């Protein structure tokens, strides 16, 4: 009997987004999960690359009947606006910390912050004259982890960056930003953050913020559009 070909399953949206090497493990993340997004790949390298990208680059969604009637087939739906009560009813963890970054250009001037669900500012860093949004998102998560660990607080952290989540999980970044005098301070912070991840453990869940369902993350800088 021919050996079953190995497949790798990318879960962009599920109970625990990630890359899985068996259908059973993938199914556990997506079965019964509303709006689950996942796809199989023949090569691990392809799966790893796809996981860093929006699922829309790999999955062709069928337009809803409402979108079809309005002539919106293939168009991006507007980001919803949700109240705190609506988010609570949708199952969002209202005790969580939310983090986000803003970058004017890529690379460009960068800043990042962490807030509570009701918008109370917990930390803000920057602007740094030259950085990338992925580095900012990564630093925001690690800053939140360090802040919470210092308080013995294991609450959840929400981020809208799957790239930053992967970097934290792997305890390394894959930025192509070349070090120079302008970005040296920022890259020193990145190196310190990477070392912190190697030196410390944490139990805080890091969860993808579902912007298309919940609206903009509360830590958003409000500069889109």
Tell me what you see in this structure.
- Helix content is 33%, strand content 22%.
- The strands form 2 sheets. Strands 6-5-4-7-8 form a 5-stranded mixed β-sheet, covered by helices on one side. A 3-stranded antiparallel β-sheet has the order 2-1-3, sandwiched between helices.
- Strand 5 and strand 6 form a beta hairpin.
- The chain is globular and about 50 Å long.
User: How many helices in DSSP terms?
Assistant: 8
- Strand content bin: 15-25%
Unreliable sequence segments? 62-76
Give the quaternary arrangement of the chains: single chain
How far from one another are the termini? 56 Å
Please tell me how large the radius of gyration is. 19 Å
What share of residues is helical?
A: 25-40%
State the shape.
globular
Number of strand segments: 8
Mean pLDDT: 87
What spatial order of strands do you see in the largest sheet?
6-5-4-7-8
H/E topology pattern? EEHEHHHEEEHEHHEH
SS-derived structural category = alpha/beta
* Largest sheet descriptor: 5 strands, mixed
